[in-house]
Specification:
The chain is mainly beta. It has one helix and eleven strands. The protein is globular, with a radius of gyration of 16 Å.
Amino acid sequence: MLLGPNIKLILCQGLHKPPHTGGAIDWHQGDYYFRIDKLNAVVSCWIAFDQATVDSGCMWVIPGAHTQLWPHESLESPGYRMLGTDESKATALELPAGQFMFHHGATSHRTLPNTTDDPRRALAIHYMDITARSLDGNREAEPPENMPIVRVASIG
């Protein structure tokens, strides 16, 4: 079990990088955006709808960098960029269409531009342990129906 028996869907994002125009998403950690009071409480599932390769803008991660929340700076457009990134350890995670990956809420990750003739589409679904609480009122104004509770039955 990744988080526990009771989890909450906190965000579902459709991601689209059109051919030759899909831009880069800088290094960041999901936990920096979600800002919750508990470690190891967020997991994300990234599903490739199209083949995700280095050239089409696949996910890159930095193994082992999930052990802390790194400082981030605000960008001109909505979002943040993680500071102090050691890109020498960066690993590309290429996925065929239909495959998925799970990553920890503090996993350092990015995607690069799509330089191919094909779109790169994906879906990111973020889950949180129901016992975790938002800090600084982050996401507290979100209506409960937008963050449903998912009960997980144990398999045994």
